[in-house]
Specification:
single chain, alpha/beta, Rossmann fold, N-(1-d-carboxylethyl)-l-norvaline Dehydrogenase, domain 2, 8-stranded mixed sheet, 28 helices, globular, binds nicotinamide-adenine-dinucleotide
Length: 653
């Protein structure tokens, strides 16, 4: 195989995954052929694409018309012609090895010599699938998550003979879809994400089987104490208990008795109305923070960290890749490697050793890589190194875990909230990082600050309510200073909003001076629905900005409003189509970067402080500021440039 320039993509299967993959490829501009075995199935898949594209268009997330995207999707029933011109084929047929092999043998016969042949399998061996062809070097795993339109992660899996070129072509293709690929460098069962997920589901199941915990305790503790998006049993009900059961059976792993029992009784989860919870006559997954009890969360996290160590030690993935995988693929908070570094790898190792001794169970046997790390003193964040290196400033994560930032030479400080897996929810740590960054940056080198959220779903969907239930009122009243730091930062700040801007996220946007939103964005203060009120300045900021009538509507009703109304109400400066957002923000930023820093600083200060003062006091502040600016070089430069009809070059002196 030579270098591949992917233009035409063929997707085999128009089911759940196939139609979604075809859709994202078409949205990204590729010509796509979607093939299934019957006309009816192809049409259903095509209709699903159309429906989904219309939803995207309604939310303002398509840069062109639905018809234009659909025009790039062809359908087919016959395989030979469907793949004849393909640069890349992605197989998304049912998860059966015999079927996959049959399909790849056919592909071998009919696909162009240069084509990359990918399988979307979630659990089968890429190597074995590739063995059905005479060109295993061109076969690669490309594991999308469900639903492909929403999920940002794709695992790119090397089979034993996959070449770098093939894997790189697949990786580049995923990037061109605006998704995040991670390499899985060896064809291990479960790849990266499901390998770490395994113990999250299975260990609580063992604990419940052994009478050491209840289903509700496990789910409540993992969600409300440890911040996972869904309890293990709740997740298992959603996926289908039979699915996990089948995968474990195929991989030759022992099956926890509660799992086996449910499958025997036909209680497979939501799809049958009953699983670990009762969805028909009961209230479904109805655990609450009060159910937390004494559940041993370390036992579960230690096993996940042990699996991560194995992947890293075996050269399957790096800590960064493991963490990216579980964050984007499963919505896990921060990533298991970072979390393990915080817990302490020594504590994790000790937990595994104790359990191993007590039970003699193989699954607790500590992995060699974990042992090596601990023995070499790399016991985690507190020690300066663990899975990551914290001291060298080299390989490990930057200084911040939940923020990315860049300060340009011109003085533009761009800050990205980086928790896309949690829709950039503001955790205490994230807020502390914002506070720390703005408090420690050299203000003189900054002329303007922008905030945005990673991914395209949310600026920030709110405060992270993890641990709320455990907090005492005095703790909770101790609101983080981050909002104030943003508000008082002496340079203009702008929130670049795309998607949800809710609760704490809205308060962060309100702490900024200016706001530009894409048309599909949604704004709201949903705190009231939780029995709370906005606690980061929201009630007072909204009151001052929107007036009592509108502010009370937002706060009392807890409903969302769209970007158009937000613009009409004066909550944002502009609501723009998403394709134009960068340009509009660019124009704002240009003015702020090139404006006179001192005058902007004084304007910000007198306007912020004046808003809360009497008119007399505010006017006094203004004239004081006005006077102050009279002695500056910037004023001289501004007036000279005006006279000379040129652009001023302000220095902030
Ligand atoms: P699905 O049953 O919804 O769709 C599979 C489609 O493939 C069906 O429409 C079927 O008619 C069609 N098909 C069968 N033989 C075919 C052939 N020879 N050529 C073309 N199409 C053929 O299944 P799905 O959920 O979309 O899963 C497809 C693959 O994606 C599986 O390998 C699965 O493991 C993997 N996967 C699924 C998920 C998920 O959550 N559903 C997530 C990641 C990966």
């Amino acid at each position: 195989m030579t270098d591949v320039d992917v233009r035409r993509v063929t997707v085999l299967g128009a089911g759940n995954m196939g139609h979604g993959i075809a859709e994202v490829a078409a949205v990204a501009g590729y010509d796509v052929v979607m093939r299934d075995v019957e006309e009816e199935l192809v049409s259903e898949g095509y209709e699903s694409i159309e429906w989904s594209l219309e939803k995207l268009a309604e939310k303002g997330r398509l840069d062109e018309s639905v018809a234009d995207v659909l025009a790039r999707v062809d359908t087919a029933v016959e395989l030979e012609s469907a793949v004849a011109d393909a640069d890349l084929v992605i197989e998304a047929a049912p998860e059966r090895m015999d079927l996959k092999k049959e399909i790849f043998a056919e592909l071998d016969e009919h696909a162009p010599e240069n084509a990359v042949l990918a399988s979307n399998t979630s659990s089968l061996s890429i190597m074995e699938i590739a063995s059905a062809t005479s060109r295993p070097e061109s076969v690669v795993g490309m594991h999308f998550f469900n639903p492909p339109v929403k999920m940002a992660l794709v695992e790119v899996i090397y089979g034993a003979e996959t070449t770098e070129e093939t894997a790189e072509a697949a990786y580049g293709f995923v990037e061109s879809l605006d998704k995040t690929p991670i390499y899985v460098r060896k064809d291990v069962s479960g790849f990266v994400v499901n390998t770490v997920l395994g113990p999250y589901i299975a260990e609580p199941a063992w604990m419940v089987s052994e009478g050491e915990a209840t289903v509700r305790e496990a789910d409540a503790a993992m969600v409300h104490r440890r911040g996972y998006p869904m309890g293990p049993f709740e997740l298992s009900d959603l996926t289908g208990i039979d699915v996990t059961h089948h995968v474990r059976e195929e991989a030759g792993r022992p099956i926890p008795p509660v799992m086996a029992e449910k499958v025997e009784n036909g209680d497979l989860g939501r799809k049958t109305g009953r699983g670990h919870y009762d969805y028909e006559s009961g209230a479904g997954a109805d655990y609450t923070p009060d159910d937390v009890g004494e559940f041993d969360t370390l036992r579960v996290e230690a096993r996940m960290a042990n699996e991560a160590a194995r992947l890293i030690g075996d050269g399957v993935a790096t800590p960064e890749e493991v963490d990216t995988g579980v964050r984007l693929g499963l919505g896990f908070p921060e990533g298991i490697c970072r979390r393990a570094d915080d817990i302490g790898l020594d504590a994790i190792l000790k937990k595994l050793e104790t359990l191993s001794e007590e039970t003699g169970e193989e699954r607790f046997a500590p992995d060699d890589h974990l042992v090596e790390l601990v023995e070499s003193g790399k016991t985690g964040r507190a020690a300066g190194a663990g899975f990551y290196d914290y001291d060298s400033g080299g390989e490990g994560p930057g200084d911040y875990r939940f923020l990315n930032y860049d300060l340009s030479e011109e003085g533009l400080l761009e800050i990205e909230l980086d928790r896309p897996e949690r829709m950039n929810a503001l955790s205490t740590d994230l807020l502390e990082e914002i506070d720390d960054l703005l408090s420690s940056v050299d203000v003189d080198s900054v002329r303007c600050v922008t905030f945005e959220g990673a991914g395209d779903r949310a600026f920030s969907a709110g405060a992270d309510i993890e641990g709320f239930a455990d907090r005492s009122p005095t703790d909770a009243m101790d609101v983080t200073p981050a909002f104030e730091t943003v508000e008082e930062f002496p340079r203009p700040t702008l929130a670049k909003i795309e998607g949800y801007c809710l609760g704490g996220g809205l308060e962060l946007a309100l702490a900024c001076d200016l706001r530009v939103a894409t048309e599909g964005s949604e704004f709201g203060a949903p705190e009231i629905n939780l029995g709370l009120i906005p606690g980061g300045g929201g009630t007072q900021k909204l009151l001052r900005m929107l007036g009592e009538t509108r502010a009370k509507e937002l706060v009392f009703r807890g409903n969302r409003i769209g970007a158009d109304r937000a613009e009409e109400w004066g909550l944002v400066n502009r609501a723009v189509p998403s394709a134009e957002s960068d340009d509009v923000v660019g124009e704002f930023v240009d003015d702020l970067l090139n404006g006179p820093p001192l005058a902007l600083e004084v304007a910000k200060k007198v306007m912020n402080e004046g808003a809360d003062a009497s008119l007399d006091a505010a006017l006094a502040m203004e004239s004081q500021g006005f006077g102050l600016l009279f002695s500056t070089d910037d004023l001289r430069e501004g007036t000279a440039a005006f006279r000379e009809k040129r652009d001023p070059e302000f220095t902030g002196e």
